[in-house]
Amino acid sequence: MLSMLTSMQLVPHRHFSLPGDLRRHSLIYTLVIAIILTIFFDLSRIASIGVVFYIVMDIFIHWGVFKHLREDVHAKAWILVSAIILDFVVLLAFLWVKAKSDIFIVWVSVAGVLIVFAAEKWFLKLHAYEEDDKNYN
To answer: If residue 122 lies in a helix (H) or strand (E), which one and from where to where?
Structure first.
């Protein structure tokens, strides 16, 4: 997915003089992030952070399809809205349960999601799509 989003120029990418293609670079970046996470958190905390990121991503994918692609892909609005509501309920329930046992991970997850959204908004504001950008081809 990271390679796809990078190819669409929706996430920043630099080669940093690394050999190989975009997929190999994405794998290296993912491994670095995984190593950093394992230094600071145990496996259950990493899984909890992943759950929050995944459900938030799922909500926004459904929202994007609902808002921009619903007619093109012949998606039913009630199914998309139901999926968003159910995802939101599951996310709130998970955060509620997690807050009772490990509030720190809830704050780390919320901070992480906000940082990703802010960084993405900043990147898209400053970076116009260019067909011949050497960092993405």
So the answer is: helix 103-126
Q: Would you give the DSSP letter of residue 41?
A: S
Q: What tokens appear for 77 in the block? A: 């609005």
- Please give the pLDDT value at position 1: 62
| In the chain, where the domains are located | 1-10+18-40, 42-128
Summarize pLDDT for 24-34 with one digit per residue, the tens: 777 888 899 89
pTM over 0.70: yes
3-state secondary structure at position 112: helix
Q: State the burial class of residue 52 (Cβ atoms within 10 Å of its Cβ: 0-12, 13-18, 19+).
A: buried
Rg (CA), the chain: 17
